[in-house]
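Section 5.1 Outputs to date
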Amino acid sequence: MPDFSMQYPVIEIDVMQPLPTVSISARDSGAAFLLRRKGKPVGFWMESLPAGTVLTPQEVARRIVKNARTELLRESIREELLPPANTTRFPMVTVIICTRDRPDKLARCLKSVVALDAATSGCPPAFEILVVDNAPTDGATREAVNAMSRVQYVCEPRPGLNFARNRAMREASGEILAYLDDDVVVDGGWLTSLLAAWADNQDAAAFTGLVLPLQLSTRAQILFECRGGFRRGFRRIRYQGQDLPGNPLYPCGAGIFGTGANMAFRRDVLLRIGGFDEALDTGPPLPGGGDLDIFYRMVRAGYPLVYDPGYLVFHEHRRDMDALGRQYRSWGLGLMAFISKSCRTDHPRRSRFRRLIRWWFLDQLRQLLGSIRGRHAVPAGMLLAEILGGIVGLCGEYGRSLRRTGRIRRWGS
């Protein structure tokens, strides 16, 4: 089990460059390794290591073979056999950041997006940047945007993330809308990887990407990433159709598709299916479910969804245990609110959602029992918070949220 008392530096290694010697300082109790090939991410693993450990290039190579040989082989074959994506005509992209009262995080995110011009080789595609300030309590976000070049600002007074996402959908000019959370930093290949995924899948309506930790400096951050974080693997996956061999809960278990911190959509399709459900992702009463719902509705409507690991962002995980516990509760709450809504609106998939509910609670109870017996790293209290969040979500939270958002619309009209 990892030692959560100290930090894990995130070490990036490109296998096409000479392998480094890795030294673990006295402040560290392990390391996380991000493996790249010609800049493209192909692997990630975490390892508990004693302070003062020195890994030679040969020892680093052995770890690479152990942890990422399949991904490296797959990427080498892909590069050898497949032609590069045809990028002669890029669509217009609007990069959207919905935020509320976090100007420092927003400024960091914006700097990484603005820097893409310099980081993109050749002629960069046209893209605009739009910040939606959601029910702000002061003018700090507007000031942060005004300090940046090429960034547009709009204020959405109705509180709720999906209100902000829908406002961005209406205001944006791009054919593709790329939504980012304000607590992420984009990788240098983020935009070109999104557009390469689009070029290879021009019939796709939704795209998601890899999310890795920006830092692993606290117990809560290391714990969250050890449980899997937001990772969805290092292989491009195209999801299409109403069934997936080997996954009897597909597409109801929409968490497999990605996360709302890093997602993109064709604007015309997003408008066609009615945008985001404003009764989900409403803020503190129901801080989740909106991304699961939009992914599910896209796939159920028959549109392909593509996950691409090169479409990469780095996320600042919750730094303290209390905040992480609230996040776990919100995940249970948001998941079950999404399921409750879907059972109402998608009767043909109702039995599949019921099986998902049963599986989820049994899996959570299994993890809880493992934590109590000392076999699971996640504290029992956090698992209980997630379970209780799920119970609340299942017991009418979506209906309550519909009534709340109805009042907000009347107030804002």
